[in-house]
Structure formats: structure tokens, C-alpha cells
Write a structure and sequence with these properties.
Layout: H1 9-16, H2 21-32, H3 34-64, E1 70-74, H4 77-82, H5 87-96, E2 102-106, H6 109-112, H7 122-133, E3 137-142, H8 163-181, E4 187-192, H9 209-222, E5 228-231, E6 248-253, E7 256-259, E8 265-268, H10 273-287, E9 291-297, H11 313-316, H12 322-334, E10 339-343, H13 345-354, H14 359-369
Parallel strand pairs: 1-2, 1-10, 2-3, 3-4, 4-5, 5-6, 6-9, 9-10
Antiparallel strand pairs: 7-8
Length: 372
């Protein structure tokens, strides 16, 4: 006669109710006091928000996955000159060796209108010509605030003027730029007032929203056919619902920076790529407008007092090296955004030609070949 195994009713109940234990613990925690209730509510909101943002991110990535990925770069002649490089040679090497075809170019007011009413477009002309010769495209920064320190680039003759005096002159200058390049076949977009609301960075006389709105309307009145890109905040969660309403949004992605305030060390933002996909997806759902990475960190962010020219290679490698550059490009691709502009090729070339450190240039050349 087979022997039946006796099972304790108590152990049966315990094994069948194991999954209830976390909920019982949560219920007990909830009942303790008001503070615990607040913690539970906040935790529930955070979980729900994160899950929602992740869902939006996956939707955005899926929606755009079959669109071509275009990786370009910002090019600034002044930056090449700062490193003792010939700007024209530098740009040509970016085209020939790195295979870059998408360029974000600048139109510094201080360089083009050094004297009131006298305009010198010769530098920007040859940049457009090089892009056109290679079949590329240009996103042109316009306005007072444009890429690179000190961010706002007013000519010396306008620096001491009050807003009511320099602003009309800025608009006249912008008109001249648009009249010259608005019909150029390689012009793809304007980037209006780079990172306009980043008041903590740069030396700028004004951050008034009304001025950005006015400039947006003004540019549209001069050239209604060319899309306008306006920057949103970078790592802050939020949706660009206010005016102006551009044709596309731009965002900068910086992963590893020097924290000069509290820790005095390098800090890696722990944000996953889907965080930026969530920002882009949320903006697209609510506004119908897409987003581009108009500035992807691909150069070092050094401690204050260190120079990009003379910093030891050991220090440079703490915030960017070959592996980090590869990972950075893959990270940007994983956001789902399809237009990405690298930040720093002039510096890579300087390291290669002036300091015998070709690693970043060679790495970029190898990585970018797979995206052509």
C-alpha cells in the first residue's frame, strides 16, 4: 500500500501566500503614519512617471528606427585657429578623412560686422562652398547666442549698448545673414539662439523670452521655407510647450563633466539613452515636432584653470578617450534621434597634428565609416 506524504496545512498556506507578503508589508507601512503615506504616494508617482516615460521612449525609438541616421559635426573656424590650425584645411580634413557631410556652422555677429554696417561674409562663404562641393547640408546658427564661449558674440562696438539700442542692430545683422544664405541649396535649417535659456553658462546680456519669440517671428517673416531649430533644456525633465514653437527642437547631450561646485571631481550623468528618447517622444506627441542632438559631447570637459591646449593626456582621458568616444556615439544612436552633431573635431585634429595623439581622430574616422 503506497504511503501518502502528509502535508502541513500551515506550510501549504505559507507557500501559497508568499506573493502576498510585499503587499502586506506595504499595507502595514501605509497604516503607520502620515509620513509613510506621503512616501508611498511619492514612490507610486515616481514609478508611474518612469514607466510612462519609458513607454514614450520606446514608442519614439520604434517610430523613427527606419529613418536614416545622419551624424555630422559643429565646425567653428575660430576654434581651429585657437589651436593653431588652418580653418580651411581643418574643415576639408573633416570632410575627406572623417566623411562628415552634415555641418552646424556659426554666424558670429562680432566676426561678420566688426564695424557698424560693414559686413564680411568671406569666411562663411567658403564654408558653405565646401559643404556644397561635397553634397552636404548646413544647419546655420543665427542670433546673438551661438556655440562656443562666451556663448554670446556681440561686436565690441555693441557690447556697452542698452538692449533697446543693440537689439534692433542685431535684427538688421540677422536679416543680412538670411538674405545671403536663405536661398543657398545646402542650407537645411537655422538654429536660433543656441541654448538660449541656459542662464548659468556663458556671458550674455539678456535671456528674455519675448526676445526669442520676436526673433523667431522675425526669421520666419524673412524666410518661411527654412526650418528653425530652438534648443530646449538639456537634462531637465520638461516639455517645450511655451512659445516660440519652432519646426524642430534641439538638445545638447553631455555625459561626463567636471563638477566644480560640490564634489570637485568628474561626474558621469547616470541618465540612460531612453531618457532622451522620452524627452524627444514627449515633445513630439504634444507638439508634433521632432528633436535633434545638435551638440554631442566628444571632447574633454576639464577642471577650471586647465587648457584644452596644454592639459596632460592623462587628464584629457578622464573625460574622453577612444572607448568613451565610441560609447558616446552608440549612446546617441540609442536615443532614437536621427540627426546628431559631434562637438570637438577641431580639437581631435589638434591633438593628432600638434601633440602626436591621433587616437580620437582615428577612432572617429573608424566609427563614422559605419554610418555612411
Amino acid at each position: 500500500m503506497p504511503i501518502k506524504k502528509r502535508v502541513s496545512p500551515t506550510s501549504n498556506a505559507a507557500s501559497s501566500a508568499w506573493y502576498k507578503r510585499p503587499f502586506k508589508w506595504l499595507a502595514d507601512y501605509w497604516r503607520k503614519n502620515v509620513f509613510h503615506k506621503i512616501v508611498c504616494v511619492v514612490l507610486a508617482i515616481v514609478i508611474a512617471f518612469t514607466a510612462g516615460m519609458y513607454g514614450v521612449a520606446q514608442w519614439y525609438i520604434f517610430k523613427h528606427k527606419n529613418e536614416p541616421l545622419r551624424i555630422g559635426a559643429t565646425f567653428i573656424p575660430n576654434y581651429a585657429e585657437y589651436f593653431g590650425l588652418d580653418p580651411q584645411v581643418t574643415m576639408q580634413k573633416m570632410i575627406d578623412e572623417l566623411g562628415i557631410r552634415q555641418f552646424r556652422l556659426v554666424s558670429y555677429w562680432k566676426d561678420i560686422e566688426k564695424q557698424p554696417g560693414q559686413y564680411d561674409f568671406s569666411s562663411l562663404d567658403w564654408q558653405f562652398s565646401k559643404v556644397q562641393a561635397t553634397g552636404g547640408r548646413v544647419s546655420l546658427a543665427i542670433g546673438l547666442r551661438q556655440p562656443r564661449w562666451p556663448e554670446c558674440h556681440a561686436p565690441t562696438w555693441a557690447e556697452q549698448m542698452p538692449l533697446e539700442e543693440w537689439y534692433p542692430k542685431l535684427k538688421i545683422f540677422m536679416q543680412k545673414v538670411i538674405e545671403r544664405y536663405g536661398n543657398n541649396p545646402v542650407l537645411e535649417s537655422y538654429q536660433l539662439e543656441n541654448e538660449f535659456f541656459m542662464t548659468v553658462f556663458g556671458i550674455c546680456p539678456d535671456h528674455s523670452r519675448w526676445r526669442l519669440e520676436d526673433e523667431h517671428s522675425y526669421v520666419k517673416s524673412l524666410d518661411s521655407n527654412t526650418p528653425i531649430i530652438v534648443s530646449r533644456s538639456n537634462n531637465w525633465i520638461g516639455l517645450p510647450l511655451g512659445d516660440p514653437r519652432p519646426d524642430r527642437f534641439g538638445i545638447s547631450v553631455y555625459k561626463r563633466v567636471w563638477d566644480k561646485s560640490l564634489t570637485k571631481r568628474y561626474y558621469e550623468y547616470p541618465l540612460p539613452a531612453w531618457f532622451y528618447a522620452g524627452l524627444a517622444g514627449g515633445a513630439e506627441i504634444l507638439t508634433g515636432k521632432d528633436m535633434v542632438i545638435h551638440e554631442l559631447q566628444a571632447e574633454s570637459w576639464l577642471p577650471e584653470g586647465m587648457s584644452m591646449k596644454t592639459a596632460p593626456l592623462s587628464e584629457i582621458n578622464k573625460s574622453i578617450n577612444s572607448k568613451r568616444l565610441k560609447d558616446r556615439i552608440k549612446y546617441a544612436e540609442a536615443t532614437g534621434m536621427r540627426d546628431i552633431y559631434l562637438w570637438g573635431p577641431e580639437w581631435w585634429l589638434y591633438l593628432k597634428e600638434k601633440r602626436n595623439y591621433p587616437d580620437l581622430w582615428v577612432t572617429a574616422k573608424t566609427e563614422l565609416q559605419s554610418y555612411r
